[in-house]
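Example 3.2
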Amino acid sequence: MRSFLEVVRRRLEIEPLSSDAKVFLAKL
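Structure, written as tokens:
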């Protein structure tokens, strides 16, 4: 899970308003 969170953080840093990020956060 650690590596997964790192990937998510990198994605959020690159595209903070990415639709994928919104969907991911919505699932949480």
